[in-house]
């Protein structure tokens, strides 16, 4: 394990994996913030201590809350595959410069995707940022398969 932790590519991977996982994890408190600030809750137990009339008003959806929630769902669909494929990619021994390019571009695309999603920036900003991150994961997958394909 010690030699792996000294490998520059693996250290770069763990750095950027931690960054995007932290970004994804911060979406849950952001969703809670939007729920409380917009007064829009999804479950009855969330408003159980409120008076009956107020409960009815608070049990509703709000576009801002839904936007943040969908952004978090999109993170789960993209960051988890990146972390899994990125680990395999790092183990194939790529050049540090190529690995850093993959990791940095993916992290940047996910951060920008969140800004575009939550900030409701006009398309194609969100679509392009998603596509860039997706292509990075595909590129790393290609490298892994080209190095270890055994059928």
TrEMBL record:
It is found in: Endoplasmic reticulum membrane; Mitochondrion outer membrane. SUPFAM superfamilies: MAPEG domain-like (SSF161084). It catalyses: RX + glutathione = an S-substituted glutathione + a halide anion + H(+). Signal peptide: none annotated. It is a multi-pass membrane protein. Keywords: Acetylation, Endoplasmic reticulum, Membrane, Mitochondrion, Mitochondrion outer membrane, Transferase, Transmembrane, Transmembrane helix. Its EC number is 2.5.1.18. The chain crosses the membrane at residues 12-34, 79-107, 127-145. GO terms for molecular function: glutathione transferase activity. GO terms for cellular component: endoplasmic reticulum membrane; mitochondrial outer membrane. Its main location: endoplasmic reticulum. Conjugation of reduced glutathione to a wide number of exogenous and endogenous hydrophobic electrophiles. Belongs to the MAPEG family. Homotrimer; The trimer binds only one molecule of glutathione. This is Microsomal glutathione S-transferase 1.
